[in-house]
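Q: I have two molecules that I believe assemble together. Could you output structure tokens for the complex as a whole instead of separate predictions?
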Amino acid sequence: MANPFPFVAGDVLTAAELNGIGEALTFTPTYTNFSLGNGTVDARYVRVQKLVYVSVNITCGTTSAFTGSKMQISKPVTSVASSAGNLTQGLSNFSDASTGAFVFGAVRYSTTTAQSVDLYNSAGTYVELAFTNVTVPFTLATGDVIGISYVYEAA
Amino acid sequence: MKTKEEYAQQCRDENPEMTQTVNGETRKLNKKEYEEAIEGWALSRWYQDNPDQIPLPK
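A: Yes, here they are, computed for all two components at once.
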């Protein structure tokens, strides 16, 4: 069942509603600067009142591609606004099926409805965040995997 | 180097239709979704040839 929130005064809670708290649900993400094409996505989230945990696993097909700089993915539930605007809220990973390379990154607040899926750049003295691009961390091809997980506060 | 239109045609030729799997359900992309996927892949390949044309991220 769907998450039962919000409860209101006078509600009589059923066992199904109570059991629905924290139950994993699927959602269909939308993307900016990424095209799933003929790929596969599994997107789930768990919500407990205002706390939302999201897990997305994308397996690329032949026509999946980064279509610009800074991939963003929609949230299943609108979040509170972040005053800092760039708070890291989770982790990303990019797996290259052809080379076996495994690149790590961060998932950051972008807007109340979307997260930025970034990666770590270790070229300098300190590790910095960098944006995905059409060839960064690599040109996507069949079997490549993008893993995304993050936690945030719902509006 | 190819134009965006040539990349798009290449993608159409190689993928006369596309399926996408979302949360375990596989379906054929409709015409609008198919063209968006073609355009996305073509844009990606064109940007690889013309990296100075990639818009700065917002």
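A: One point stands out. Chain A has a mean pLDDT of 93.
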